[in-house]
Specification:
alpha/beta; Rossmann fold; 2 domains; 7-stranded parallel sheet; about 35% helix
Length: about 500
């Protein structure tokens, strides 16, 4: 059963109740920068863990969290609880300012003794793991166990032994599920990728980009969605608010980050209600994210600025720190409150809320950049190349596909691709991924299309749901992970 963390284990490593792998199976330690909770990385890694455990692999799930998150470290139901047996939760605590939790990660790999560490992190966070594969320095003692200074022969012998052990690296292999959310890649990523034994790309866009930038080969396995759980339902609720067929709800689920481009969504929504002369009783904006994130946007300010404060549905979530986040069943209600899901993101490694919305039968409108194209445009979710759409030049220069308005090509069977107008870089030096910024005009047009074409909205909803089932259900994605693990097992056990 699950080993749950609580306040008594905060700041120290609890002893795991070690489960055993079946014959010719692996001890796998998935590591995510999310706890076992309804977040993008956390949800995906949780499902992968359950699937591989059912195949006979021993799983110890390492979730990165600070001490305030520790009480939040509890399992969320998948709908089928038998999937969740014999998975150990290994909290990787951030003690103080320690990056990633190196000490607790080292402690868990020493205690759990995995054959494979499967990292589902961004590049910055799995740097510590790649460093373990090729140590940058060695610390050697100057004295022996008796406190006597080592002579030259003893020092040479110690150095030879240390470098021999370091060259062998850790006994575990490193697999990484790599988020690639814009190009060009940072050059220093290559040093980390050189130490990755098995790379998995969560999108075709990422697979193409990693090959182009670093000649790095990956296995393509996208995120999955529990289509039995995330489905259309009647009588959806959001807190005390019930779904009203007479009220058109525009929704977005995301982490409150600058790259999600939420102010443009608010402004586009404002233009939409003004154009159609809609009152707060006729239209609403549901922003399911942490309104108080210190690093994010202050939504009430923008809502007041653009005159739509009365249209905002009040937030129905706390934070991971407070332990009040909505569980997965609650998320199903939230998606079903929406008439259309809009994510004008500046770049996504995958964007699992878009997929969850599709599975719930909600048309999606996503920026035509990174993985949005795959969800809306690609027919088979696996075999089609996706455009990289590079935007060269200076800041804010309109490049390829840079425009303000929707065109016929943007309106697809299961959603709308929002064209981007401008772009910016993550750093002033432009040595980081480019970000594509959709305009409020195109956002307004996308929302307006589904509001004034209810038959098109219904057909898009059905097509989105079908696509999620056919290509992203865990029945489909799970087989990809089983095949991948079988291949890896043969190589490691050889």
């Amino acid at each position: 059963m699950f080993q749950q963390n609580n306040q008594d284990t905060v700041g120290r490593i609890a002893e795991p109740q070690v489960n055993k792998a079946k014959k010719n199976k692996l001890r796998i330690m998935p590591v995510s920068d999310s706890p076992w909770a309804p977040t993008g990385f956390g949800t995906n890694t949780k499902n992968i863990s359950c699937i591989l455990r059912n195949q006979g692999h021993a799983i110890g799930y390492g979730g990165c969290q600070n001490q305030r998150h520790a009480t939040w470290y509890t399992p969320w139901p998948l709908g089928q609880t038998e999937k969740e047996t014999d998975i150990e939760l290994l909290p990787i605590i951030y003690p103080g300012q320690e990056k990633f939790g190196e000490k607790s990660f080292d402690a868990w790999t020493g205690k759990y003794k995995p054959d494979l560490v499967l990292a589902h992190l961004d590049f910055q966070m799995f740097k510590h793991m790649t460093d373990k594969k090729t140590p940058s320095h060695l610390q050697l003692p100057m004295y022996n166990h008796k406190g006597v200074l080592l002579n030259r022969k003893e020092r040479i012998q110690l150095i030879n032994e240390a470098f021999h052990d370091a060259a062998k690296g850790p006994k575990w292999k490193l697999g990484c599920i790599i988020p690639y959310d814009g190009e060009p890649s940072l050059p220093e990523w290559k040093l980390q990728l050189d130490n990755v034994d098995y790379g998995v790309a969560m999108s075709r866009y990422g697979q193409i980009g990693l090959k182009k930038d670093f000649n790095f080969d990956t296995t393509y396995i996208p995120h999955g969605v529990d289509t039995d759980l995330f489905k259309p339902i009647l009588n959806a609720t959001y807190g005390d608010v019930k779904k009203d067929a007479k009220k058109f709800i525009v929704g977005c689920v995301a982490r409150n980050q600058h790259r999600k481009n939420i102010p443009r969504l608010i402004k586009g929504f404002a233009q939409f209600v003004q154009k159609n002369k809609l009152s707060p009783d006729q239209a609403g904006l549901l922003l399911h994210m942490d309104w108080n994130d210190a690093m994010g946007w202050k939504f009430p300010h923008f809502a007041e600025q653009y005159g739509v404060a009365d249209y905002l549905l009040p937030p129905q979530m706390g934070t991971l720190d407070s332990g009040e986040a909505v569980d997965e069943k609650g998320m199903v209600n939230i998606y079903n409150m929406m008439d259309v899901f809009v994510l004008p993101t500046a770049g996504e490694g995958f964007g699992i809320p878009s997929l969850e919305a599709m599975s719930c039968g909600v048309p999606i409108c996503v920026t035509n950049y990174t993985t949005g194209y795959e969800l809306i445009k690609c027919d088979d979710a696996s075999n089609e190349d996706v455009p990289m759409y590079p935007l060269g030049g200076q800041h804010n220069e309109v490049g390829q596909n840079g425009r303000d308005h929707l065109e016929e090509e943007d309106i697809c069977e299961r959603g709308i691709l929002i064209p981007y107008k401008d772009m910016w870089w993550d750093t002033p030096a432009r040595a980081a991924p480019q970000r594509a910024i959709a305009s409020e005009v195109a956002i307004c047009e996308a929302i307006d299309y589904y509001y004034n074409n209810p038959d098109k909205k219904l057909s898009a909803a059905k097509a989105a749901r079908k696509h999620a089932i056919d290509y992203y259900s865990w029945d489909v994605i799970g087989k990809k992970w089983i095949d991948w693990a079988d291949k890896i097992t043969k190589e490691i056990k050889k």
